[in-house]
Amino acid sequence: MDILTFQKIFMDPLHPREDQLTIEDIAHALSMLCRANGHFPEIHTVAQHSMECYEEAKARGFSSQMQLFCLLHDGAEAYMGDFIRPVKARMPGYKEAENNLLHMIYEKFAGRVPTDEEEKVIKEIDDTLLYFEFLHYMGVGCGSPGKGLKSEPVFREEPRREVEQRYLKLYRKCLKERETFSEI
Questions:
Q1: What residues does 4 pair with on adjacent strands?
Q2: Could you tell me which of 149, 16, 151, 35 has the C-alpha nearest to residue 84?
Q3: Three-class secondary structure of residue 11 per DSSP
Q4: Confidence class of residue 166 from pLDDT cuts 50, 70 and 90?
Q5: Integer angstrom CA distances of residue 24 from 75, 121, 165
Q6: pLDDT tens digits, residue range 95-111?
Q7: How high is the pLDDT of residue 15?
Q8: How far is CA 96 from CA 27, 39, 92, in A?
């Protein structure tokens, strides 16, 4: 069964084609999805979280490629939704479908899929931001603080359209930095 994306593209998230994926759809949808399944006292979106992960990778001195991976790491949620971890873990076949779509997103928008070692770094940054988001909004961390934050995220509700535009701007900045780096 197909979904209709913001860019008016019909696609089946379980059987995607690369030509159906757009960064505009990803930025738009992630800027509309709430973290914590909407249980925070303010709206904090998946796009905001992804940009915070990007900033954390940058603050830790990781390459523009790794920063781009962090920005895109929840891209599949633009097409499949953002299920909370306890539910996602109990959904047979979901992780495989999500990974298939995410790998396609990484290939198209980052040029390649992260290595296993890079995936571990992305996961640690993702988990660290999750912890501090919960600490800020709920007064208690969720999971582990990992290595702690090097960046200084500002957790606050922001206008959705501004979040979407900032996500696209960061994506284009990553591409430009990656192109500049590959020329050296």
A1: 10
A2: 35
A3: strand
A4: very high
A5: 11, 26, 9
A6: 899 999 999 999 999 99
A7: 95
A8: 23, 27, 9
